[in-house]
């Protein structure tokens, strides 16, 4: 192994280890080695700072940057589970799932899956917190995904049961147990716009204040998270709309998708044609259909 | 020297970093600004509002790309997806040159999102110069590497930071984005004379200069980009301009960002030094006469 690679692995291991509760570098690494010894082996002291002090600056900067970004991305989860629990969640998630992307935009990409595997971080209302995490990630994903030219009316008129429709890359559909859409709109308007990448250091951790949400009555909702004129919207869907879009997004031919949409439905058979016509007209107007695969 | 092969033979003047809080002002008021520097990573996306804003800016202003996560000095290779997206953005912006930092920040596919200092070793010179050459060949535009602020030095270092910078840029045959604030911050943190650094850099390779503010603590200085430029940094800027000529200059302000007017006014203070460095029309004739 090259000396450069070995040094970078050792420094990264030290820099990425979780801070103490006082937001300082811990005395020991997870394998029991003393951080003071590790720092002294790699880093020169100066007349004002020990090797440990100097390494600690980078350890703190690493976490301040990640915490700040994560808090910007998931204010709704923080509002639901509270600051103390959110701090523990961030620390555990970012320790177990460190960034593997050049962009901080992707920091929360594995949160939904990780929370399902680690539900102890979700607090007393786990489904509410999980629903919020899913909506917040869908929002981030919809914000800067591609927008393709919509299909024209003639092409749309030519679709049949075998057609495999393609939808806008920015469109996400969610089935949720709580009406977290209204809550997130409220929280985001209270907190302004999201952060972006930069190359400066922070004096201290930037904490984002969010109002604690004590409760929210359960209500099953279906939601499309989409973009119009480059703004994000949450559109409530009927259960059948959701199932149809979900099936189309998963690549099912239109006939199969419609059958799936109306499974166990309460919509009478004679009204289904009009229901589909209305849904397709709305989605076409929103530009959600992009090209016919076949 | 101001227009050189490392900045695409441009003479860009004084610019500021394009930041979200100023979008509305720039698009509605259309202020006169020589150029904007964008953080590439904020626009390496597939669609949405950031690219819409960028396209509107590109319609009216000159834009140069500055990256924060290429990590030329990382022992591991860069993510191919990163390079692909960066090239797409280069084509969109037509940036005449591209800059990123002389540092590392990722290892084994994990990213620290920080600008970690290099060990100043011969192995690191070789790895870093090769990476810069490869990225330049892939992107097909001039590259300038920026010196970073640092808070730590390694035992294994075999040369000074400025010797390392010089070895890398000579070996890679690339340009320098000289950040005089970073030189000042590091000089205070590591007790060296910042003028020795500025005087040692090959002036003909300076493609661009960064200026910024910093925060001073009892035992060290932090590169926070949240203040006006301080006098010792202006002094280093003046010396750099004296050596390199009137070079494209950019003010970075990333935290506690004030109004657009305040940031721009701070950047324009650079004109004091740039004007002094510009040769007057009479000077060439006088030089000829002296010959």
What does the main sheet of chain A amount to? 3 strands, antiparallel
H-E order of chain B: EHEHEHEEEHEHEHHEEEHEHHH
Give the % helix of chain A: 40-55%
How many β strands of chain A by DSSP?
A: 5
The share of residues in extended strands of chain B comes to 15-25%
Write the layout of secondary structure elements.
The complex is a heterodimer of chains A (294) and B (291).
Chain A: H1 3-15, H2 35-42, H3 51-73, H4 75-81, H5 83-96, H6 111-117, H7 126-144, H8 153-157, E1 165-167, E2 172-176, H9 180-191, E3 221-228, E4 231-237, H10 239-249, H11 254-261, H12 269-285, E5 289-292
Antiparallel strand pairs in A: 1-5, 2-3, 3-4
Helix pairs in contact in A: 1-2, 2-3, 3-5, 4-5, 4-7, 6-7, 10-11
Chain B: E1 14-17, H1 23-29, E2 35-39, H2 49-60, E3 63-66, H3 80-93, E4 98-101, E5 104-107, E6 110-116, H4 122-139, E7 143-146, H5 161-172, E8 175-179, H6 180-190, H7 194-200, E9 206-212, E10 215-216, E11 221-222, H8 231-244, E12 249-252, H9 260-268, H10 271-277, H11 282-290
Parallel strand pairs in B: 1-2, 1-12, 2-3, 3-4, 4-7, 7-8, 8-9, 9-12
Antiparallel strand pairs in B: 5-6, 10-11
Helix pairs in contact in B: 4-5, 7-8
